[in-house]
């Protein structure tokens, strides 16, 4: 009898966490390493949110709460959805979990049966396919190409849907590309989904507040109200509110689904951290001016990184609409040999040689379902980004044809 579950063989560790861990190990060993792997803002959590957490501790709000969120936070989430997305939810349609990842995982665990298919636009966040596999479903990647700015078309979505399709996972702006779907692009997708009533929509809106230039964020149930009854609209405070370590995610959806997700959570983690919930409550109801300030910083960093990477031989880097990632194409680097003698056979070999020879840690594209690319998180200082991009350019300039 095998000791480890067969389920474990279907999944792999997170590539983004692996890269971040490797960079930290090299730093601890004395290497000069610049880590561009972590999808985490470098800003401090706003002071008013930190103070709210301290008040919660001092007032004894440190005990168990309702399994899927305190009533005050659920009410604030309902108000947020109505104010910012035009979506009306009642508190019994809201669930709060330990980060956005748990929200998505709970939904898949509560609904997926063996053979159920889940359509996932690629490039995708590394965790989507593995969470589907853990839940017993089958991930179905649909690739958005560089030529279409990493976005899928209505025709591609239509072709991917089968009688076994249960979910369509939608993420805009995207991790890892930063690509955002405008209203017309999203309406084309929702028109397809309206023709397939068995398909549910899981919209991961985590980067909603990190959109640039004149891009307007919209979410599926907002664009097509006819999908409201089969859409789970997911969000959280991690990225825009610089609260990654606080671990609070939330979602709005149909009562039966929310109840089922609560059942999963009741037998796994139970309630999210009580103190974090009160901090999130302050985040959603308190001053919001920092959102615009932080967004302006990220946009400046985006422009810096896109400009510098496009100056690197063999690299093409589209300008993303949001989030804090770029996803450069490195087709012009494949098949060459680095100055250190490494053969660049694919994007994983590129990332490995880049780390070993320059100390810059990025995540290779195969982990996100589209190669040859790599992901850069520009959630760090301008000076660090400039140095990292300078090293990447030097690395690319050193590549030679075999």
List key phrases describing it.
402 residues; alpha/beta; Aspartate Aminotransferase, domain 1; Aspartate Aminotransferase, domain 2; 14 strands; 13% strand
| Uncertain spans | none
Shape: globular
Question: If you average the pLDDT, what whole number results?
Answer: 96
Span between termini = 50 Å
Give the spatial strand order of the biggest sheet.
2-8-7-6-5-3-4
Q: What number of domains? A: 2
Strand content: 5-15%
Q: How many helical elements? A: 13
CATH topology of the largest domain: Aspartate Aminotransferase, domain 2
Question: Could you give me the name of the CATH homologous superfamily of the largest domain?
Answer: Type I PLP-dependent aspartate aminotransferase-like (Major domain)
Largest sheet geometry: 7 strands, mixed
CATH domain class name of the largest domain: Alpha Beta
How helical, in percent, are the residues? 25-40%
Task: Tell me what the CATH architecture of the largest domain is.
Answer: 3-Layer(aba) Sandwich
Sketch the topology as an H/E string, one letter per element: HEHHEHEHEHEHEHEEHHHEEHEEEHE
- Rg result: 21 Å
Instruction: Provide the structure class.
Output: alpha/beta
- What is the count of β-strands? 14
Describe the structure in your own words.
Keywords: Aminotransferase, Pyridoxal phosphate, Transferase. The protein is of the alpha/beta class. The protein has 2 domains: 6-44 and 290-396, Alpha-Beta Complex (Aspartate Aminotransferase, domain 1), CATH 3.90.1150.10; 64-285, Type I PLP-dependent aspartate aminotransferase-like (Major domain) (Aspartate Aminotransferase, domain 2, 3-Layer(aba) Sandwich), CATH 3.40.640. Helices cover 39% and strands 13% of the residues. It contains 13 helices and 14 strands. The chain has helices at residues 15-28, 47-58, 71-85, 100-111, 127-134, 154-160, 183-194, 220-223, 255-266, 274-285, 289-310, 347-358, 382-397; strands at 34-35, 94-97, 117-122, 138-143, 165-171, 200-204, 231-236, 249-252, 325-326, 336-337, 360-361, 363-364, 374-377, 400-401. The protein has a 7-stranded mixed beta sheet with strand order 2-8-7-6-5-3-4, sandwiched between helices. Strands 9-13-12 form a 3-stranded antiparallel beta sheet. The chain is globular.
